[in-house]
Amino acid sequence: MRLIIHENYDDASRWAAFYIADKINAYRKINSKPFVLGLPTGSSPVGIYRELIKMHRAGQLSFAHVHSYNMDEYVGLPASHPQSYHYFMAENLFSHVDIDPAHAHVLDGMTKDPVKECQNYEDAIAREGGIELFLGGMGSDGHIAFNEPGSSLQSRTRVKTLTEETKIANARFFEGDPEKVPATALTVGVGTVMDAREVMIIVNGKNKARALQAVVEEGLNHTWTLSCLQMHSRAIIVCDEDAAEDLRVKTVRYFKDIEKDTIKTYRERVKNGA
Ligand code: GLP
To answer: Is 186 in the pocket of ligand 1 (CB under 6 A)?
Structure first.
C-alpha cells in the first residue's frame, strides 16, 4: 500500500485529481474500450471533483470514454432528493463534465428488488471487464463505501444497515438529525472494490486519524473494513497531515521518505501550472 501524505486537503485533492486524469489520458492513448472508474460520494472527494472539473474546462481531460460506477446509494431516496447520491454526483461532477449520462451508473435506491439491482450492478461491472481505478473515501469507523464494521471482506454489492456512528456522521446532511438518515443503503462490497485493478482512497481531517492509524498500522480486520487494502496489490491512500496525526512518527517518516519524489514532482507541476 502506498501512503501519500500531503500538507493539507487541497494538495491531497489536487494530487489525486492529477493522478486520475493522467490514468484516464494514458489509458485512452492505447485502448479503444472505455476507462471504467469507480466513484465515491461524501465530503472527502469534493476537492478532487473540483480539480477534475477544472482540468476538463481547461481542455486537459475528457470523460467521453469514461464509464463510471458509484459505490453506494441510500435506500428510499429518489434521484431528485438533494441528499441522494444520484443528486450529489450530478451536482459535484457529472453535470460539469462530458460524461455520457447513460454511462454514469449509480445504484437505484428506489428499486423494488434490491437483490436483483445489486446483482445487475455486479454483472454490469463484469461485462465492462472490471473497474480500472476505484476512487473512495473512508468513514470515521474505517468503512469503505457502506461496508460497516463486521462486513465480510469478501462481500459483494448488497443492502447494508447503517451503524449509529455513520448515521450521526451523515446527520449533517439531514438537518442534523440522525433519525432522518436512511437506515439502509445499497453498496458495493469490499470484494467488489478489491477486484478493481487499482484503488485510491482520499482521507482528510482529524476525525479520520484513529481509523487511518488502524488501517495502516494494525492488521487486516473486518472491524476496519478499509484495512482490506493491505491485501490489494495496487492501493494508494492519499491523506492530509491532520488525518495522519495518530500514525507513529516512524510510520510517517517512512512513507514521507519513500514518497519524497512524488511530492517533489507534484510541487514542480503545480509551480509550472501544468
Ligand atoms: C459515507 C459513504 C462513504 C464515505 C463516508 C465518509 O459513509 N458511504 O463512501 O467514504 O461517508 O464521508 P465523508 O467523506 O463525508 O467523511
So the answer is: no
